[in-house]
Design goal:
Elements lengths: L1 E5 L6 E5 L7 H10 L3 E5 L3 H14 L3 E6 L2 H11 L3 E4 L8 H11 L4 E6 L4 H10 L3 E4 L4 H14 L3 E3 L1
Parallel strand pairs: 1-4, 3-4, 3-5, 5-6, 6-7, 7-8
Antiparallel strand pairs: 1-2
Helix pairs in contact: 1-6, 3-4, 4-5
Length: 163
């Protein structure tokens, strides 16, 4: 499977190839209804992006088509790849997740944004939902909860949270 990642130093897009394992039950409903979900992971920490990508691909059975380290790069990746779902960190350099979500939803209203953050206070949650997010995931959530939230949002378009 191909994944496109924005290079953090010069903004150039590069492609990498990874293997995919079998999809578990939580992702089955979304895959049955919408096919192979395309996901972009946005987080300013490389290890978090890599860990989330592994959960999304290996445990959920979805395809991570791209990633970005900040909100500005997230907008560029979404413009290029038009994913079904963006997993968006909230606090990042250059452009935070709230402003990036607002910009993505204004230009691509069909793209679902799900906040993925360690800041689970009501103000952060409300700000992300006001910006257009369809889901909210605590970074301490289990992989199965991440899969379930992505599935619920992608299939029903409803707001969903996991903590």
């Amino acid at each position: 499977m191909k994944a496109t990642t924005m290079n953090e130093t010069n903004g150039a897009a590069t492609a990498t190839t990874t293997d995919d394992d079998a999809s578990p039950a939580p992702a089955a409903r979304a895959c049955d209804v919408v096919g192979k979900l395309s996901i972009v992971v946005v987080d300013d920490h490389y290890l978090v992006r890599l860990g989330v990508q592994n959960i999304v691909e290996l445990q959920c059975g979805f395809e991570v088509v791209g990633s970005a380290a900040n909100g500005e790069d997230a907008i560029a990746v979404v413009a290029k790849l038009q994913p079904k779902v963006v997993l968006m960190d909230v606090h990042m350099p250059r452009l935070n997740g709230i402003d990036a979500t607002r910009a993505i939803k204004a230009q691509w209203p069909h793209v679902f944004v799900i906040a993925l953050t360690m800041y689970i206070d009501d103000a952060t949650r409300e700000a992300m939902f006001a910006a257009g997010a369809s889901g909210f995931i605590d970074k301490a959530a289990l992989g199965v909860e991440i899969c379930q939230t992505i599935s619920e949002v992608a299939v029903d378009g409803n707001r969903s949270t996991a903590s």
